[in-house]
Write a structure and sequence with these properties.
Helix 1 (9-37) packs antiparallel against helix 2 (43-71) and helix 1 packs across helix 3. The N and C termini lie far apart (59 Å). Strands 1-2-3 form a 3-stranded antiparallel sheet. The chain has one domain (9-116). It is α+β, with helices and mostly antiparallel strands and 125 residues long. It has helices at residues 9-37, 43-71, 102-116, and strands at 73-80, 84-91, 94-101. It has 3 helices and 3 strands; from the N terminus they run ααβββα.
Length: 125
């Protein structure tokens, strides 16, 4: 009898990205709308850069879904609370839970957005 494969670190990373990238898309959309209400000299360039990041993120979400399907992972419930974001998912038939505090979510979103905009957050201003 073969043992069921355990959830791997890669599986958890896929779930984490699946939860975070749609939040990042929402944040970018809100920021684009905010840019429309502020009078800036080069607002078109900023909006175009953010839209380009949205396009890259959307493509990554599509690829992410395909990878998850291939590994037998399905997120079936997400919930946002005052303290954290929670998700329940199946991984090769076994139920799992995932949660992240909002402070960590924010830090991860900074990391992802800096990657998509090709900005090094480690350098000082």
């Amino acid at each position: 009898m073969t043992q069921a494969p355990l959830e791997t670190e890669g599986d958890l990373q896929l779930v984490k990205e699946y939860i975070l990238l749609p939040i990042l898309l929402d944040v970018l959309e809100r920021d684009i709308k905010a840019l429309g209400t502020v009078k800036l000299k080069m607002d078109v360039v900023y909006v175009k850069a953010l839209r380009s990041a949205q396009d890259l993120i959307t493509a990554d979400v599509t690829l992410l879904r395909k990878k998850m399907r291939g590994r037998g992972i399905k997120v079936y419930e997400q919930r946002r609370t005052e303290l954290c974001i929670e998700a329940r998912y199946l991984c090769r038939g076994y139920q799992h839970r995932f949660s992240m505090l909002w402070g960590l979510v924010k830090a991860e979103l900074y990391k992802y957005l800096s990657k998509y905009l090709n900005v090094d957050l480690r350098s000082s201003l």
